[in-house]
């Protein structure tokens, strides 16, 4: 009797284990075989879970569903600041040949040196031709999402990286003008420091925020053309101009808040909002934070200018969506990308997200004061890819630069910083 | 690690028993077939993946494109010459030593106080033990705000004339130049130790309390008869008798502190100049942000070996104890 019971439970254990496997494959099948009844789900992968950006994404999905009510959509957003978690999830899915239907990726190196180089993306030239997009996006932007003449993704928005935000009240009370050059910046900063106000707010708990300032200094010192040459290896990091930029950056670090390493970018922007610090150098997602979260008014509570010496230059951060290889429903994905790249789609998404459209013919009236001015700047300015946000160089290089910057902010050792940049840049020439 | 311990222990007990009888009875087969699924799963998902990680750590897979060509010990050589990893080793060493010693001293002290048959002992026990119920992420976020230089208890401390930058301090105490880094005690790490001690001391208290309860009253009585003072009883008798507990506490705390990730990640991040960085955080960032898969795997293997330094002697000694 005892033995029988044992055998029985043994058999049960095994059958349980087997059904475990079974139900797993079955659930996969239903999502796959949904095609027989309805359609394969269109899975949109992003890290847009924050206040404005989630609304933007939902508006976009709503627009798509109005046009194609028979295609089921799944919003597969992964929470986590700046997409760190999402990128980790995406990497494991792509490596495991289980790509989402379409996913968010920054234009530039993150796309080209990453997924395109790994042979994981389908070219989209036919979609661009069919939709007549070749002259609707700026050429330099299309170049950022292309490799060897093939276009690999559709830009949905543009953020500007080289913006200096300032507290209007502090500037008015002290009779200061927002700085246009580095000299003016240091004059203003000295006056503020003398009054006991922190001149520059920095929150580099995540080191990319410091890299963000450094790249705007590089852009302001080198100009767009030389700045771009750094990422192709044509200009070495031990160039005299780079050294000048590093020294300027070092000088700027004398004017930051003491507790910078305990703050993230929102905490730093908050210092400016509260009037505890005067200036902040950060991308224009700060505007969304000021307006949506802190209820501040543009040009009333806070003002903005391009970072020193970068007038007429535009540090681009663009979110794009592409078509991975091995997706079961490429035609549906292309339909979604067509909506994403349309005037309608871009104007549904961007006013909510607080970015500007990537197309040059979008409806300007839908954007706020800052948006309108930036759309104008975007048309005429020279575009530069952002390093801190993965557009200028591969992620591996960016990680190394972030580490070097993190050390530099404390040690302020110009020589060892440049040495590290030079040795890390060996990767760029590959 | 728990699983490793369990299988090694079961092996230790099963193997000598079968050898003695030399003949496998049906019961053994039943036992074995019950164990089989978990043994198979552990071999695949624990040892199999450890092996895979070891293999990756010797490859050149340092981008999104997998590249399994043999790189020898290049990834390890790179890590040991890297500023960040050297800082990580220093931080882990300092954190482990400070964390374990404070937990042991404080845990023993509180347990002895609790053992004085005071009223409401169970309330105190629960108060001490409660932080254990939180996850390290919660602890990290709370202490991040408590010890933030511009908020938290510092507003109070400033009034009584004590100012500290806590985890934003970049100073290294007693520093010596070593490799690329300043070797010493990073001041910022002390803040992290405080948070970790706050969370884990309750656990040590519970273990020591159990140990104290296991010491028979006769021992104390006998010592009192011989004219020993209370202090002498604790110094010469009770605390030495608690040594096996101390060993267990060290093993458990060491594997927490050597693998620590969540507390640091939530509380301080890598810190300015990497004063609070640890191998776990570096491994995560280099693998999933930088796509340096082989470097990340090498860090994982080094972490495994460092934990093994504590666990293996413990397993060997516990096996000896059984046979």
TrEMBL record, chain A:
> What is the top-level taxon of the source organism?
Bacteria
Record has Signal as a keyword: yes
Recorded GO cellular component terms are: cell envelope
Q: Where in the cell is it found?
A: Cell envelope
Leader peptide range in chain numbering: 1-19
Which keywords are on file for this protein?
A: Signal, Transport
SUPFAM superfamilies referenced in this protein's UniProt entry, alphabetically: Periplasmic binding protein-like II
Q: Which residues form a coiled coil?
A: none
In terms of one coarse class, where is the protein primarily found? other
Q: Quote the Pfam families the UniProt record gives.
A: SBP_bac_1
Is Transport given among the entry's keywords?
yes
Instruction: Write out the function statement from the record.
Output: Part of a binding-protein-dependent transport system for a sugar.
The family assignment reads: Belongs to the bacterial solute-binding protein 1 family.
Q: What is this protein called?
A: Probable sugar-binding periplasmic protein
**Annotated organism of origin:** Thermaerobacillus caldiproteolyticus
From the broadest rank down, the organism's phylogenetic lineage runs: Bacteria, Bacillati, Bacillota, Bacilli, Bacillales
Automatic annotation (TrEMBL), chain B:
Cell compartment(s), UniProt: Cell membrane
Keywords noted in UniProt: Cell membrane, Membrane, Transmembrane, Transmembrane helix, Transport
**Stored CDD domains:** TM_PBP2
How would you describe this protein's topology in the membrane? Answer: Multi-pass membrane protein
Superkingdom per UniProt? Bacteria
One Pfam family in the UniProt entry: BPD_transp_1
One GO CC annotation, please?
Answer: plasma membrane
The residues that cross the membrane are 29-50, 93-114, 126-146, 183-210, 241-261, 292-316
Give a GO biological-process term. Answer: transmembrane transport
- On whether Protein biosynthesis is a keyword of this UniProt record, the answer is no
Q: Provide the primary localization.
A: membrane
Show the PROSITE patterns listed in the entry: ABC_TM1
Q: Where is the ABC transmembrane type-1 domain?
A: 89-316
What InterPro entries does this protein's entry cite? Answer: ABC_transporter_permease (IPR051393), MetI-like (IPR000515), MetI-like_sf (IPR035906)
> What family does this belong to?
Belongs to the binding-protein-dependent transport system permease family.
Q: Matching PANTHER family, A to Z?
A: ABC TRANSPORTER PERMEASE PROTEIN
What is the protein's name according to its record? Answer: Glucose/mannose transport system permease protein
